[in-house]
């Protein structure tokens, strides 16, 4: 029989049980939160350790001769490389002299990327550059690119740039084979952009009938060849024209309906201005050595299309 008394006893037992349950519950919650705390502290510790290890992995020191090459190396090497450039912005790779500070930098580099296309600064310095650091791998970015005589400006053809990027990628893999996949992925992503640039240049030039442009320094020979344009150079064999030469160029500009004379920041604009005045045109800047290669090439394309329309 279940009496009233039994019921009371049962109730007290249940209360005691409930009290124990509560205590156990509180204990469990405490334990869980403590454990969670430990885990999160551990998590923080391990992530701190991880960041320290990443920042401790030394970047591969790469020296390149001109700014567009530093862009190519950075695009392929990503966060694994630290790039410095020999010919600074505004200087000309035809006449540049390496500084003692740069020689010191070269002695710490693991990779040197040269244009490789008979550019004067490289021709006169390459032996000294190699001698200062015999452990440094030297990459000739022009490997596989047929040269147009002694014209060194290979990088201004996006098709050539693709080959240069490929050569740079191979160099990085030689030095750091562990990150081969990373370099290949970066290279492929950049090649897609270069390929698009090439197609966009072709498309934009379709409408241009008068395909001649006049420029002070003949840096655009490879570009002109690839896109069926004609580059008329004011400078002849590295020299500014004399009065007679300028008169001939004015005639040539008028005969070809040229309205814009292109100049670059590394060279004198004097003779270009004289010609522009005489033909009632203007001078426009296009940079063969800008760092942001793709952005710059679109800018150049815009200027050239305007100049030839
Ligand atoms: Zn040049």
Mean pLDDT: 88
Please outline the major beta sheet.
4 strands, parallel
The CATH topology of the largest domain is Rossmann fold
Discrete helix count: 10
Strand content range: 5-15%
Bound molecules: zinc ion
Tell me, what is the CATH class of the largest domain?
A: Alpha Beta
Tally of individual domains:
2
In angstroms, what separates the terminal alpha carbons?
111 Å
Biggest sheet, strands in spatial order? Answer: 2-1-3-4
CATH homologous superfamily assignment of the largest domain: Nitrogenase molybdenum iron protein domain
Unreliable stretches (pLDDT < 50, length at least 5) are 29-53
Second rung of CATH, namely the architecture of the largest domain: 3-Layer(aba) Sandwich
Rg value: 33 Å
Would you count the extended β strands for me?
8
Shape: globular
Summarize the amount of helix as a percent range: 55-70%
What report would you give on this structure?
By secondary structure, this protein is α/β, with parallel strands linked by helices. It has two domains: 60-202, Nitrogenase molybdenum iron protein domain (Rossmann fold), CATH 3.40.50.1980; 207-308, Rossmann fold (3-Layer(aba) Sandwich). It has ten helices and eight strands. It has helices at 4-56, 67-77, 100-108, 120-132, 158-175, 180-205, 221-226, 243-255, 270-279, 293-308, and strands at residues 60-64, 81-85, 111-114, 137-140, 212-215, 230-233, 260-263, 282-285. The relative contact order is 0.09. Zinc ion binds at residues 94, 153, 217, 219, 288.
